Amino acid sequence: MVSEIALTVNHSAGLHARPAASFVKTAKQFTSTITVAHNGKEANAKSILTVLSLGVDQGAHITIRAEGDDAEAALTALRELIESDFGETA
């Protein structure tokens, strides 16, 4: 099963440093293959270096794609993480 969602990253740091680490940690909890895309580049959501290489800043639009048995659960968890600003308060 392949699923995909599009989101806006509102965290002030974008998808860098702590938010990127939280994103990768969450993605690694699932067996599905998960990728994140931004500005025509795609990265393995389970690799901190490739996620950081996307250069996702605050307000950026990203697409997350998951393929596998737990794809829907993975996308739900990642959506909740991003929409909660990675559980951080300003």
Write up what this structure looks like.
By secondary structure, the chain is an alpha+beta fold. The chain has a single domain (2-87), classed as HPr-like (Histidine-containing Protein, Chain: A, 2-Layer Sandwich). Helix content is 33%, strand content 27%. It has three helices and four strands, in the order βαββαβα. The chain has a four-stranded antiparallel sheet with strand order 1-4-2-3. Strand 2 and strand 3 form a beta hairpin.
Summarize the structure.
This protein is of the alpha+beta class and 90 residues long. It is built from 3 helices and 4 strands.
Question: Order of strands in the sheet with the most strands?
Answer: 1-4-2-3
Contiguous low-pLDDT stretches (5 residues minimum) are none
CATH topology: Histidine-containing Protein, Chain: A
Shape: globular
Q: How many alpha or pi helices? A: 3
Average residue pLDDT: 95
| Main β sheet profile | 4 strands, antiparallel
Distance between the amino and carboxyl termini: 37 Å
Count of domains: 1
CATH architecture: 2-Layer Sandwich
CATH superfamily: HPr-like
Percent strand equals 25-35%
Q: State the total count of DSSP E strands.
A: 4
The H/E string reads EHEEHEH
The oligomeric state of the chains shown is single chain
